[in-house]
Design brief:
By secondary structure, the protein is of the alpha+beta class. It is built from 5 helices and 10 strands, in the order ααββββααββββββα. It has a 6-stranded antiparallel β-sheet. Strands 1-4 form a two-stranded antiparallel sheet. It has a two-stranded antiparallel sheet with strand order 2-3. The radius of gyration is 20 Å and the shape is elongated.
Length: 216
């Protein structure tokens, strides 16, 4: 299904209901939400009825006790691959729905915007680091739901992402005269590569070549 078709179905669903009153969707309508959030790269296992709330924080990071709604309009929340509530995906869905509801003014423009946000939301494809199945994935943005993501042509910063499943930060560092490395802060996995490698795409390519040479 093309992104344009997914966006059109989503906008039409948004315009179909009075979201201040609706509590539950049909199976086909819930599938539209699932298809949209999947196309946006969130890897959900399902969407289910439910509301999520966020917690306001003091400057020291402690909770103030006050909350705010993550999905005020959308009566569905997103469940991630671990079976937990996916707050970021639910917030993205809420934001997309809120914008799509404006399509009553200009449906085609709303479809274009939702299509753009779906495509922009897809995160960096995880990079396989070792033959054992270690992966580097993009770290989540803290700047909101509709943001640009890392792409293969981007150069490394001091922190390059998250060690998948270990869920610890991975740092970029110079380690020898000829090689750099990315190192996991949690399990201390260390992956070496030539210092000439500057971007995520170059790293993906050279590591894929190395892994392919390892006997099965």
């Amino acid at each position: 299904m093309k992104t344009t078709e997914i966006a059109a179905s989503f906008v039409d669903l948004a315009l179909k209901h009075d979201w201040s009153k609706i509590k539950e969707l049909s199976a086909d309508e819930a599938q539209i939400l699932f298809t949209t959030i999947s196309a946006a790269g969130f890897e959900p296992t399902k969407v289910v009825p439910g509301k999520l709330v966020g917690h306001y924080r003091d400057q020291d990071g402690s909770s103030t006790g006050e909350t705010y709604p993550i999905n005020g309009y959308c009566p569905y929340k997103v469940i991630n691959r671990d079976g937990d509530d996916h707050y970021h995906a639910t917030g993205w869905l809420e934001g997309a729905l809120s914008f799509a509801m404006r399509g009553v003014i200009n449906r085609q423009e709303s479809i274009k915007v939702i299509q753009h946000e779906i495509e922009r939301s897809v995160p960096l494809k995880p990079i396989q680091l070792t033959v054992d199945g270690d992966f580097l994935r993009e770290y989540p943005s803290s700047r909101g739901y509709f943001v640009d993501h890392t792409r293969d042509d981007r150069e490394f910063g001091s922190c390059v992402g998250i060690h998948d499943f270990c869920n610890s930060w991975m740092d970029f560092m110079r380690v020898t005269k000829t090689h750099n490395a990315i190192v996991c802060r949690g399990c201390h996995l260390r992956v070496l590569f030539p210092k000439e490698i500057k971007t995520y795409g170059e790293l993906r390519q050279i590591l894929a070549s190395k892994i392919a040479q390892v006997p099965a």
